[in-house]
TrEMBL record:
InterPro entries linked: Rhodanese-like_dom, Rhodanese-like_dom_sf, STR4-like
PROSITE patterns recorded: RHODANESE_3
Top-rank lineage group of the source organism: Bacteria
Boundaries of every Rhodanese domain copy: 19-124
GO molecular function terms noted in the UniProt entry: transferase activity
PANTHER family linked to this entry: RHODANESE-LIKE DOMAIN-CONTAINING PROTEIN 4, CHLOROPLASTIC
SMART domains the UniProt entry points to: RHOD
Keyword Transferase listed: yes
Source organism: Dietzia lutea
Name of protein: Sulfurtransferase
């Protein structure tokens, strides 16, 4: 048995966000990543992505992560999907959220940028951007 609801590929995550009005997307990357790399754009679904850092820009764990989920309005019974760069931090966030009573909590596999390709570049193998889903860069 998994310690969170499961892993969803980006397109399946989009479909859940589109079909369930209570479902929320939480981007757990750092604020620098949101600013410089961009993020998921849910505006056509009438939603916004919640940004709650899993690790701070200084590389420290966010001790207020669960508290910030509540402050952002995430309801304990609502489906919550976690997204990071490649799917590793978001899996950890889904585990912690589940343990705190949130969920169903899901990890978006491949994250926003995906795994590196043979040349070490992200954004070409898998992930939210490669799936052709809406995103925006500030």
């Amino acid at each position: 048995m998994s310690d969170y609801a499961g892993d969803l590929p980006p397109r399946q995550a989009w479909e859940l966000l589109a079909s369930d009005p209570d479902a929320v997307l939480v981007d757990v990357r750092t604020s620098a990543e949101w600013q410089w790399v961009g993020g998921a754009d849910l505006s056509e679904l009438g939603k916004r992505t919640l940004g709650i850092e899993w690790m701070t820009s200084a590389g420290q764990p966010n001790a207020r992560f669960v508290e910030q989920l509540s402050e952002a309005g995430v309801e304990p019974g609502a489906p919550v999907l976690f997204l990071c760069r490649s799917g590793h931090r978001s899996a950890a966030a889904a585990r912690v959220a589940t343990a705190a009573g949130y969920g169903a909590a899901y990890n978006v596999t491949g994250g926003f940028e995906g795994d590196p390709d043979a040349e070490g570049h992200r954004g070409t193998v898998n992930g939210w951007k490669v799936a052709g889903l809406a995103w925006r860069q500030s």
